[in-house]
Design brief:
The protein is an alpha+beta fold. Helix content is 29%, strand content 35%. The model has no long low-confidence stretch (mean pLDDT 84).
Length: 192
């Protein structure tokens, strides 16, 4: 009697033996190279990462060179009382990377910039040459709408405070052309 209780309460398999109406067991088939190549979707990234799990590629050198090239081509701007141009990208510090995650490409970067500018302003019938820099403290991918430009002028005792204020306001107009070049940079980065 105790044996019957054990049988009733014990673990049972769903199928103990194959029946005639059961599906036949799978038969292994050898795959050809064509079968393997045609079924696999094209993977992003390296050959060793066909699953597309995680791969990060440092593209800082390319990004730094490209930023310098793009920002050097901004050119000059004409203002109501003068004109100025970007003459050099004096500081371009940061990093950029291309990441493949779950077979999707993502890009990211963080940079700080300093651009040398020079120009001429007419003030009280005199033309004054002004040199300075446009500093962009930090910007990263997708944050170009929040871009800020700080204008620093070289110390020059001959320039009045009123003219310095006008020059700073005028130089802030470089923000939009710089934003356009950085937007072009982001698009090129995405297309890589």
């Amino acid at each position: 009697m105790e044996e019957e209780k054990k049988k009733e309460g014990s673990y049972r398999y769903w199928v103990r033996e194959a029946t005639a109406d059961a599906a036949p067991p799978p038969q292994p088939q050898k795959l050809t190279n064509n079968d393997v190549a045609s079924n696999a979707p094209p993977a992003l990234g390296s050959i060793w990462n066909q699953a597309g799990t995680w791969e990060e590629k440092n593209i800082t050198k390319w990004a730094t060179d490209r930023l310098k090239e793009l920002l050097g081509s901004v050119g000059s701007l004409q203002f109501s009382s003068g004109k100025a141009e970007i003459i050099d990208v004096s500081r371009c510090v940061g990093d950029a990377s291309l990441v493949t995650v779950r077979n999707k490409k993502r890009v990211g970067y963080t940079y700080e910039l300093s651009l040398k500018v020079q120009g001429e302003w007419s003030f009280e019938e005199n033309t004054k040459k002004v040199k300075g820099s446009l500093d962009i403290p930090e910007f990263s991918f997708g944050e170009l709408d929040d871009l800020e430009v700080n204008v620093k002028l070289n110390e020059d005792k001959e320039i009045s405070q009123q003219l310095k204020q006008q020059v700073r306001l005028d130089m802030k107009q470089f923000l939009e052309p710089i934003r356009l070049k950085l937007s072009q940079f982001e698009q090129e980065l995405k297309d890589r």
